[in-house]
Amino acid sequence: MGLKEDFEEHAEKVKSLTKKPSDADLLILYGLFKQATVGSVNTDRPGMFSMKERAKWDAWKAVEAKSKEEAMNDYITMAKQLLEADAAAA
């Protein structure tokens, strides 16, 4: 299985977690997912009244230096950790 297929598989598996990850973990996953699928940030930072969108933008911006492949690998690693923790808690 290639990196892209492994990434897509884990992106789907994360959606089936029984326990919602922390907001911090969700933001990290979001940033890595966007970096892996879109690349570097290509939009302006949302205004201060759009708190949720601003936090998501900041999470994406934080991983901007990573290549798409690095972001995919980091996403997969984090997804595996969350899935293992979810399975252990069940």
From TrEMBL:
GO molecular function, a single term: fatty-acyl-CoA binding
InterPro entries for the chain: Acyl-CoA-binding_prot_CS, Acyl-CoA-binding_protein, Acyl-CoA-binding_sf, FERM/acyl-CoA-bd_prot_sf
UniProtKB keywords: Lipid-binding
Superkingdom of origin organism: Eukaryota
Transmembrane segments: none
Domain ACB: 3-88
Cross-referenced Gene3D superfamilies: 1.20.80.10
Similarity comment: Belongs to the ACBP family.
PANTHER family: ACYL-COA BINDING PROTEIN 1, ISOFORM A, ACYL-COA-BINDING PROTEIN, ACBP
Protein name: Acyl-CoA binding protein 6
Organism: Helianthus annuus
Species lineage: Eukaryota, Viridiplantae, Streptophyta, Embryophyta, Tracheophyta
